[in-house]
Amino acid sequence: MTSDALERLRRVLAPSAGSAEGAALDLQAVAEAEAALGIRLPPDYLEFLAVYGGGSLDDFLAIAAPAKAPGHRYSSSIVEITGTFRRAAAKPRNAEILGDGESYIHWGMDEGGVYYLWRIEGESSADWPVCLYDAGELTVLPFGIVEFLARACTGGLPDKLQRRFGKGGHEFLHWQDEYRRDTERYDSGSYNGG
């Protein structure tokens, strides 16, 4: 069943050309990621993966795939980045706010260094809120990833957060398409690293 939030997101954010191919690959990795983390990933994230796969929103917000694709530096794995986040969270400067980090799953990172997380709470991963952790400040939002992205793409976040995403014209790029684009730029001599 497709959620209302996913339908709203699809109206304003088209999947990239490689999303259909890549989404199937990303969905195959779900069981591996869930086993490694000892959790069930949120159902709205799985809906998102089925349409978009892992990739980036506006070359700004990287949304991790469940597992890293062999041989590709462009696919970030939720398992890998969660492990890295939890090690950083346990450091004294972060632990006061985040505890040992074990209550969080890291699903994204933006160009400004903000961590996008789920806080594990309640009986079901469907209830996990999206959290943003930025320079010692934790913002907890009362909805999941797809609602968050739909609001980000339609101007529906609180002003402080919406400024990060702008007002419109958003583009999603699956990590495979990003890899192909950057390879083509590199091969043509026009690659500048971003």
UniProtKB/TrEMBL annotation:
Alphabetized Gene3D superfamilies for the sequence: SMI1/KNR4-like
Family annotation (InterPro entries): Knr4/Smi1-like_dom (IPR018958), Knr4/Smi1-like_sf (IPR037883)
Cross-referenced Pfam families: SMI1_KNR4
Superkingdom in the source lineage: Bacteria
TM stretches of this protein: none
Knr4/Smi1-like domain segment(s): 24-151
Protein's name in the database: SMI1/KNR4 family protein
Native source species: Kitasatospora cathayae
